[in-house]
Design goal:
Structural class: mainly alpha
Oligomer: single chain
Helix content: over 70%
Shape: globular
CATH superfamily of the largest domain: MFS general substrate transporter like domains
Largest sheet: none
Number of strands: 0
Strand content: under 5%
């Protein structure tokens, strides 16, 4: 099954539209505020539907859940390609968020079931790590292929249609997984979704009773939300840079910018992969983990502030370099945040703690993304980014970590 698991990860990350998403929406006449709302709709749908889709996967089978996910993706891609209205884009984002909810964690469960059935659970770290390597390879190849496709077609919007091909192949791949990987199907209890939802809210509210844990989750979720809300604004900055270059002047504007965007994202994905592996050695340069996390939070906020100022002053190359640094920093921070959070939350509720972190991040993205879009419409992208970077510094006052002994189980 390894080649098929690897193929899933590789094909899943061939999202040819992703490096150009804001550019596509802007070309369709959407304001930055509307784009921010679409991002909020996608993330909130994913978050709200995560519990019910997880229950449905246990009842009807993980393979069916994965097929449903890719079916939802494909319908959303058709909507994005075929229509040019905000209301329909919102429907597309709901479907895409639903696909994310059905997919999230489900394929990992399929891999673990395969290893359990074959008596190979002791290999789960290395086995999953190797399959994830193909996902990262897919991200890097995606950037280059997307650049090539835009270069030869001169059409950003076509990327939605082209993405349907690898997603249809992945749907076929998943639909023909062995039925035994579904595991033992649960009985549908009409009260189970409600109980799971109540439990999630209970876990969410319970975290607020523990100051260190709450600050740890807010620190992690805060910069993650800042990253998710701002990362795609690299695209219009790259477009501006590409069109200012005194080279390839015989090409159409879309071809020139598509080439630059694709190549830059290719190197970003290579760099972020390396950054995650370097987290441990980086954190050891500080006297404790809390200090490393605090400093990287402030550096991240400063990166967005400086990228915004540079873009405002039309210094596009420095803005791009600082933005790329933010991509690397976010992947550097994630393992450190998980390690620190694990010291503040008992192992028996660690999954709930990380779920709360995801919920806080989603709520903050739902606030940051439209706010950033609104500021970008009125002040321009540069000042909007700088303002949100300044706001992140205020958030740090609530999320500043202090060194504390690891939590022991009671």
């Amino acid at each position: 099954m390894f080649p098929r698991f690897a193929a899933y990860g590789f094909l899943k990350n061939l999202r040819f539209f992703e490096p150009f998403l804001i550019l596509i929406f802007r070309a369709a006449g959407l304001s930055f505020f509307q784009i921010g709302l679409l991002y909020s709709i996608r993330d909130l749908t994913n978050n709200i539907m995560e519990v019910p889709t997880g229950v449905l996967a246990d009842v009807f089978g993980r393979r069916r859940a994965m097929v449903s996910a890719f079916a939802a993706y494909i319908v959303s891609l058709v909507i994005f390609y075929a229509f040019n209205r905000f209301a329909l884009y919102a429907v597309g984002m709901v479907l895409f968020g639903l696909g994310e909810a059905f997919r999230s964690g489900t394929h990992k469960a399929l891999i673990l079931e395969y290893l359990r059935l074959n008596g190979r659970l002791q290999e789960k770290v290395s086995y999953y790590g190797r399959t994830r390597g193909f996902s990262q390879l897919g991200s890097a190849v995606n950037a280059l292929l997307a650049a090539g496709l835009v270069f030869f077609t001169g059409d950003y919007r076509l990327m939605f249609l082209v993405t349907i091909l690898p997603y249809a192949l992945d749907l076929l791949n998943l639909a023909t997984y062995p039925r035994v990987l579904d595991g033992e199907l649960a009985q549908l209890d009409h009260g189970v979704i409600w109980r799971q939802t109540r439990r999630t809210f209970s876990d969410f509210s319970g975290i607020f009773k523990h100051g260190n844990a709450m600050r740890a989750l807010l620190n992690s979720a805060g910069l993650t939300a800042l990253f998710k809300a701002t990362k795609d604004y690299l695209q219009p900055i790259l477009e501006s840079f590409a069109l200012s270059l005194p080279v390839l002047l015989w090409l159409e504007d879309v071809q020139r910018s598509g080439l630059v965007v694709g190549v830059v994202y290719f190197f970003i994905y290579l760099m972020t992969s390396q950054a995650s592996r370097s987290a441990d050695s980086f954190s050891r340069r500080f006297r404790d983990l809390a200090t490393a996390i605090n400093i990287t939070f402030l550096i991240g906020a400063a990166f967005i502030f400086l990228a915004g100022l540079a873009a405002w002053r039309d210094a596009t190359l420095p803005a791009i370099l600082v933005f790329i640094g933010f991509y690397g920093l976010q992947n550097l921070r994630k393992p450190m945040n998980v390690a620190y959070i694990s010291d503040q939350i008992p192992a028996r509720v660690m999954a709930s703690g990380l779920s709360v972190e995801a919920q806080i991040s989603t709520i903050l993205v739902a606030v940051f993304a439209p706010l950033l879009g609104l500021m970008a419409d009125h002040w321009g992208v540069g000042l909007a980014l700088a303002s949100l970077g300044g706001l992140a510094c205020v958030l740090f006052l609530l999320a500043r970590l202090s060194p504390s002994p690891a939590l022991t189980e009671g």
